[in-house]
Protein 1
Amino acid sequence: MSKSIKIAAIIFLVLLLDQTIKIWVKTTLSYGEEFQILGLDWARIHFVENPGMAFGIEFGGGYGKLALSLFRIIAVLFLIYYIRQLLKGGAPFGLMVSFALILAGAFGNIIDSAFYGLIFSESTYHGDPAILFPPEGGYAGFLHGRVVDMFYFPLYEGTLPNWFPFWKGENVLFFRPVFNVADSAITTGVLSILIFQRSFFSNPKEEETTEIPNLATATDGLETPRIKNNPDTEISEAS
């Protein structure tokens, strides 16, 4: 199997997993509904929708949402081009996998932003789950859909001790953001590049060393030149 087919398979599998879970959550749960994963209190499925960036970060109103969607599309087109260049240039397979994960994650969230507003009904608190392809149409226009998030891992909730250097004595919740498979793919790809693939982007300059000859040995066997007096310039001591 060629590298290009493997990369395409990775992108497809990430997209398939991401969209399958999102559609299931959207059509099964009410907005804000949650349940524990394998009975663990710190691992939950918690359905929310994100109008902004990854991990619930907001990005300024309707125009900000449109700008973010267009930026994602441009980023995906650039990543497709860049991965093709890596394939042609024979880049390390691990590097191409990292960029494939980033591409798949970005594309997965683009699908939500571009089409979910058109094909789903509104999700409401304590209401019925959303309907796929509702007769009355979707809840938003093209590129104005919301990204579906569901993974929630509140690993620690409590009061920090007084000796803690930051926010001592305050109530904290870690890990607060709710995210999806696409966000996880992007994060994994970026961290993989930063940790394991940094050498690909570094271009260390080879130090040029100039060998300085040993003057003691370089002059071995060479006769010291004699300075002959010019008879025309000799000054007679005779008066």
Protein 2
Amino acid sequence: MTPGAKNLITDVAGIKTGHAIDAGVRTGVSIVVPDSPAVVAASIAGGGPGTRETDALKPETLVERADAVVLSGGSVYGLDAASGVTAAMGSEGRGFPTGAPKPSPIIPAAILFDVGNGGDKEWGDTPPYAALGRQAYQSLSDDFALGNQGAGYGANAGQLKGGLGSASVCHDGSVKVGALVAVNPVGSVVDAKGRFWAQPLALMHDGAPEFGLENLRDELADASGHPMAQSKWAVAMGNTSIGVVAVAADLSVGEAKRVAVMAQDGLARAIRPVHTPFDGDAIFVLATGAEKLAATDEMRPVALAELGAMAADCVARAVARGVFHAETLGDARAYRERFST
């Protein structure tokens, strides 16, 4: 298994992302937009989720495809980021046709809690998130930085600075999966020495392992300590890791949901503990349909299991990359600063 050319979610053909931050508020928004509406499903495993339009993604509902997925900081206020993207896409005529003058863009969203990170949250009756959603939509690209970016800008991962991470994976010469994760869990992504829980899944990219300090890259994390070690246990009320997995396969809504369920295990491989009462962990799967999942219907379940396994590994790698590339912000100390010595 190898990463895609950029080792980003946008290695999946037909996928672009946009990101916007408000440095004063210490928050941000990320969006994932397919070139055309795509099948989307979601798996919500955390105990404190904040989401939008997830009911519309169920297989028994009218709408089978979505126009974008939004990830945002801001807790409940951040859900307004999807409203900004909705307005921008609707003005371009993109969305589900209803016979009304404007279509209805279908834009699922999830938020993380970064409103206690020390930024200026005195925004009065006009939170910044709708505007940030519009800015993110206007910045769509197939390339972007990791760490203090987009929805991960104000994130904290356990006792470290969290961030926005992404990864992709190729198999048999083509990109199969790309993942984008805003990493803000109550749990830790490393052990006491700074070894990532996801370390065994690291791939080589541009001639080097994709995360981990040189003196730790050949070591595996030590899980003998208390499971809450290195976590945000003292301030556990505000957390959540949220992400999007993109695949090129022609999945049904039900198949996409199964991949989303499997992809949640990537969070479990990278964060300890995970899916706590204080996390709203949510993973969306976006399937462009550009490639056949399997040559025959009989082979689809096997191919689906393979795809879900790759998605889980990709999510775990994205989590580690998001923290590895983050920079110190306020009291949240960066991984590379804390463990470089």
